Amino acid sequence: MVVALLLVAVVVGSVVFHFLSPWWWTPIASNWAYIDNTIIVTFWITGVVFAAVVLFMAYCVFRFRHREGNTAHYEPENKRLETWLTVATGIGVAAMLAPGLFVWHQFVTVPADATEVEVVAQQWQWSYRLPGQDGKLGLSDTRLVTPENPLGLKPDDPNGQDDLIVEAADLHLPIDKPVKMLLRSLDVLHDFYVPEFRAKMDMVPGSVTYFWFTPTRTGSFEVLCAELCGQGHAFMRGIVMVDTPEDYLAWVGEQQTFAQLTGTQQTSAAEPTAP
Amino acid sequence: MVDVTPGSVEAIPPAEVPEVELYHPHSWWTTYVFSQDAKVIAIQYSCTAIAIGMVALVLSWLMRLQLGFPGTFDFITPEAYYQFITMHGMIMVIYLLTALFLGGFGNYLIPLMVGARDMVFPYVNMLSYWIYLLAVLVLVASFFAPGGPTGAGWTLYPPQAIMQGTPGGQQAGIILMLVSLILFIIGFTMGGLNYVVTVLQGRTRGMTLMRMPLTVWGIFTATVMALLAFPALFVACVMMLFDRLLGTSFFMPAIVEMGEQLQHAGGSPILFQHLFWFFGHPEVYIVALPAFGIVSDLISTHARKNIFGYRMMVWAIVGIGALSFIVWAHHMYVSGMHPYFGFFFATTTLIIAIPTAIKVYNWVLTLWRGDIHLTIPMLFALAFIVTFVNGGLTGLFLGNVVVDVPLSDTMFVVAHFHMVMGVAPILVIFGAIYHWYPKITGRMLNEALGQFHFWATFLGAYLIFFPMHYLGLMGVPRRYNELGDMGLISDSAHHLNAFISVMAFIVGFAQLVFLFNLIWSIRHGREAGGNPWRATSLEWQTPETPPAHGNFGKELPIVYRWAYDYNVPGASQDFLPQNDPGDYAGAKGH
């Protein structure tokens, strides 16, 4: 009796906690409301299954508890019931998987008009690079990283000269413009994670990873590193500001290009275009 | 599948081969220390696993101290915190759960349950334990090495695992960790071959595969999986050792560490992750399948009812085992691997939910119309179903690739895997210990202490891990030694963290009560007799309790029926032992 009541209490308590507790996701600030919706669908399906299974158990524990003279029913198998349950489970699983794969397809299909922004991680700070006037990011190589060239850009790549370098400072993004975040790490694994954007992806030294999203609300959002990257992991924070178009342009105007940062290379790179 | 009519003599094959001569010990040393008896080896394995498990328990307290009350304890530096979480995870998954289920329960139960006198290769079996012990000692040594143990997280991801910014990365910590894992795998392989061959070749007459208790099916399938999965971890460990000691670049690309160019180039960190999770995901089921098997037997015995859908249960175990080898990359949805892999791995991962759900249905349908005795093992079995269903369902969030994107690397993941592969299997371990302790020692564990242990553990663990999901949903990342003034985290979330820590202490304390019960009852427990639960499987039918060397006295038992003949219509008692030759009109088992 007590056991059955406690099992019921576990279900009721869990459901009440789910609806009444103050702990829930942060207000979304990107286009990935689809992800939130898929989570809601999953919560409903799994919640109903959890409640049904545990309440059924509670009923069994109460109804079929041992009393003097009780005997159990002897029934090794019941093909119909087993088939029926298997099919029902299959349908429930498909109901979660189908929207999930549909949204994943969107998640991995970057729109053609997305602007590229590079995030460069190292222990334990965030830097960024924007493509500049030509809309193209120049080539880079970890081997080229020096104190003067902190992100390892190829000095002789013309596409890189006008790239804007934002070293260990905040990133600004314009509202309602899709961005493709190109993720690069100079040392170990990191993960660029902004809870309000719902998206995240590991950064792997030796390769460039990506994800895309569209910021949908202005404000200041915290960047967290989400892949254990050494003893400073918990302090590897940053800020992404989502701006109105005017504020964004003003911020871009204040940033320095790669050429400006490395004065000598600017002349050498400018030479071919001079004559 | 042919249903074997119970009692029909043709079903019992003649003894074709004479019994193999057992190894008989000649001294105290070879009886109790360098023993080749699987039962002694099982107890050695179990005691060692529980001892190192206590270290993991203390480590979990230390990290909950830090998370619940950040800034209060100066000795828990970020380095120390990361060392605590790494060692806690590694110990629990490998050195406690794997060792206890396979080395402990596997060794004790397989020969007894299939009607064998011992494992097929007793000497190798003994070596298996001693190499395991050596692996544990190397692991413990890393706590005392300069720089302490590794703090790379239990996943040991390179490149950070062997770099300066990670505790133990450029000191002895990571080396000892990798060496210890390599030793563990060698030791495990020796034991694992024994379990597989004993199940396949050592069964007594009449014990067909489809008459084996599900405990044996679970341990057998898990062992086969472990033999296939551990080699991936083995090579990954060897390759990382080479990277660390010889300067190779299996996992090391070009790296600038703190402004300095390292001498590595061209390696792939993601390669390690594939190797690790090719082992790591089956590992989840290596822990889960023995628990599935054991809990099936606990439920059937204590509900006095045949397990519902036995054949379905066997095929579900085998199916889960096979499927678990093609789902590993669901741990890597945001690892930077090719995003199209997500479609495949999300689909396989959600498909595995179907056989798993069947198992859950069959457990609760075994309760349906049963005669439920709420003994301590039964309570733990019920609690297992609750926590396993809970943890399994949150797996449907994380397995569904796009839902995993916001949730991965958050406390949601920590809550999920603790519920499903921490709490749930450990509840089964407790249930199993309360169930088989009378066979192992001849005495019952104390009931009142058991009740306290059960309620504190089940409700406490649920209160720890259920709310933790919501911290993750909020965005709290895992593996943060402190959250600091994170804008998105409310004050109430910090209070929740403190609450979780307090619960962790209560649950931990309950385990000390359990340990006390284990030791106290050896001498002071109530005498159990040979078959206190009136169970059907062979280990309860031994002539002596605890079973003597050779298990079954002069004659090996002959098996006439499956392990689930409870409350057979027409039988004179509510259970029929597997070696009962009687022909009962009502019996329909296999």
Task: Give your account of this protein's structure.
The complex is a heterodimer of chains A (275) and B (590). In chain A, strand 6 and strand 7 form a beta hairpin. Chain A has two domains: 92 residues, no CATH class; 159 residues, Immunoglobulin-like (Sandwich), CATH 2.60.40.420. Chain A is elongated and about 95 Å long. Chain A has seven helices and eleven strands. In chain A, the strands form two sheets. In chain A, strands 8-5-1-2-3-11 form a six-stranded mixed beta sheet. By secondary structure, chain A is of the alpha+beta class. Chain B contains 15 helices and two strands. Chain B is 61% helix and 1% strand. By secondary structure, chain B is mainly alpha-helical. Chain B has three domains: 217 residues, Cytochrome C Oxidase, Chain A (Up-down Bundle), CATH 1.20.210; 238 residues, Cytochrome c oxidase-like, subunit I domain (Cytochrome C Oxidase, Chain A), CATH 1.20.210; 62 residues, no CATH class. The N terminus of chain B is likely disordered. Chain B has a two-stranded antiparallel sheet with strand order 1-2. Chain B is globular, with a radius of gyration of 24 Å. Classes of the chains: A alpha+beta (275), B mainly alpha (590). Chains A and B meet through helix 1, helix 2, helix 3, strand 7 and strand 9 of A and helix 3, strand 1, helix 8, helix 9 and helix 10 of B.
Write the layout of secondary structure elements.
The complex is a heterodimer of chains A (275) and B (590).
Chain A: H1 2-20, H2 33-63, H3 79-108, E1 115-122, E2 125-130, H4 158-161, E3 164-166, E4 171-174, E5 179-185, E6 190-193, E7 200-203, E8 209-213, E9 219-225, E10 237-243, H5 245-254, E11 256-257, H6 258-261, H7 263-270
Parallel strand pairs in A: 1-5, 4-10
Antiparallel strand pairs in A: 1-2, 2-3, 3-11, 5-8, 6-7, 6-9, 9-10
Chain B: H1 28-33, H2 38-68, H3 78-114, H4 122-144, H5 172-201, H6 214-245, E1 256-257, E2 260-261, H7 269-302, H8 310-323, H9 341-351, H10 353-367, H11 376-399, H12 401-407, H13 411-441, H14 447-474, H15 491-524
Antiparallel strand pairs in B: 1-2
Helix pairs in contact in B: 2-3, 2-4, 2-15, 3-5, 3-6, 3-7, 3-13, 4-5, 5-6, 6-7, 6-8, 7-10, 7-11, 7-13, 8-10, 10-11, 11-13, 11-14, 13-14, 14-15
Keywords (chain B): Cell membrane, Copper, Electron transport, Heme, Iron, Membrane, Metal-binding, Respiratory chain, Translocase, Transmembrane, Transmembrane helix, Transport
Membrane topology (chain B): Multi-pass membrane protein
GO molecular function (chain B): cytochrome-c oxidase activity; heme binding; metal ion binding
